[in-house]
From TrEMBL:
InterPro entries linked to this entry: ABC_transporter_permease (IPR051393), MetI-like (IPR000515), MetI-like_sf (IPR035906)
Boundaries of every ABC transmembrane type-1 domain copy: 95-306
Membrane topology qualifier: Multi-pass membrane protein
CDD domains according to UniProt: TM_PBP2 (cd06261)
Gene3D superfamilies: MetI-like
Region (Disordered): 1-31
Low complexity bias (residue ranges): 13-22
Keyword Transmembrane helix attached: yes
Name of the molecule in the record: Carbohydrate ABC transporter permease
Keywords: Cell membrane, Membrane, Transmembrane, Transmembrane helix, Transport
Composition bias type Pro residues, residue spans: 1-12
Regions that span the bilayer: 37-56, 98-121, 133-154, 178-206, 239-259, 286-310
Source organism per UniProt: Saccharothrix lopnurensis
Compartments it resides in: Cell membrane
């Protein structure tokens, strides 16, 4: 009996006329109600703590800024406290110093960023440098201020060293034109270790093949930083900018109190020190609340502008 001819490779095999049904598409399984609510239950304690300890006191402080002090305690006064603030030369000086700090902000961020880059590239002794740079971050601002009062004194070691090289002494803490820069420099020295650790954590997530490609292409270190590191660490840089801004505007009270107490001639006043003076010495909590509200608005505006600029830089890079 002859075998059935095999179907030609040029013609499709004959069909039986039956159409096979398509396999039924499995519908995605919907989780139970408990599974859908689980994420909200997990974050609820943290949200409640933030609302109770942060947002609610913040709202009370803003509301309190529209009331009076002294005989008018608790009485609504509208914008009188804000008019008093901007008419006070001390507060205007504090805002001017805050603007100066914001101008110095890129330097305060670039220092730990560059040091973290060198440590990531494993310069000789990088493990030792990592510990040494972080050590000042664990010191109390009072201790740091007391130590630098000795170092920066008119007869202190730094001026003696300057005298040896023929530059003459500098009144670091007594000259109104120099004191604010001295205090800011001490603050940056004492706190940049934390930003350095954040940068190193960002480098851990950076694709090393990008750095290898830049090395093969013959890119210089500035070109590598601009075109590889900065775009790769955009979010890390945004975080460091935000935390450094908050630190400069709200975490320098200890240094100011120990090193200059706002002097000389009120040249080192900052908004947070002004707030303490109004609340602690003059018993004007409503005026202090108004100053706190202004400081909050400044930080929100500056933070939003920083994020916008850094995102643009990251896209261009």
């Amino acid at each position: 009996m002859p075998a059935a001819p095999s179907p030609s490779p040029l013609r499709p095999a004959p069909t039986t006329g039956r159409v096979e049904p398509a396999p039924a598409r499995r519908r995605p399984r919907r989780g139970s109600r408990a599974e859908r609510l689980a994420p909200f239950v997990l974050v609820a304690p943290a949200v409640l703590i933030i609302v109770a300890l942060r947002l609610w006191p913040l709202a009370l402080g803003v509301n309190f800024s529209f009331t009076g002090d002294g005989d008018r305690n608790g009485t609504p006064v509208g914008l009188d406290n804000y008019a008093t603030l901007f008419g006070d030369p001390l507060f205007r000086t504090a805002l001017g110093n805050a603007a100066l700090l914001l101008l110095l902000l890129p330097v305060a961020v670039a220092i730990p960023g560059l040091l973290a880059t060198f440590i990531y590239l494993k310069v000789p002794g990088h493990r030792v440098y990592r510990g040494v740079y972080f050590f000042p971050a664990v010191l109390s601002p009072v201790i740091v201020g007391a130590v630098f009062n000795l170092l920066l004194g008119f007869d202190g070691p730094l001026n003696q060293l300057l005298g040896v090289v023929g530059l003459g002494p500098v009144d670091w803490l007594g000259d109104p034109d120099v004191a604010i820069f001295a205090v800011v420099g001490v603050h940056v020295w004492a706190t940049f270790g934390m930003a350095l650790v954040v940068f190193l954590a960002g480098f851990a997530a950076l694709d090393p093949s990008l750095l290898d490609a830049a090395t093969v292409d013959g890119a210089s270190l500035p070109q590598t930083i601009r075109h590889v590191i900065v775009p790769g660490l955009t979010r890390t840089i945004q975080f460091v900018f935000a935390t450094t801004t908050i630190g400069l505007l709200t975490s320098m009270f200890g240094l100011l109190y120990v090193m200059t107490s706002g002097g000389p001639e009120a040249s080192t006043y900052l908004p947070e020190y002004y707030i303490w003076i109004r609340q602690g010495q003059f018993d004007q909590p409503a005026l202090a609340s108004a100053a706190s509200t202004v400081l909050l608005l400044v930080m929100l505006l500056v933070g939003s502008a920083q994020i916008g600029v850094l995102r643009r830089v990251g896209r261009e890079g």
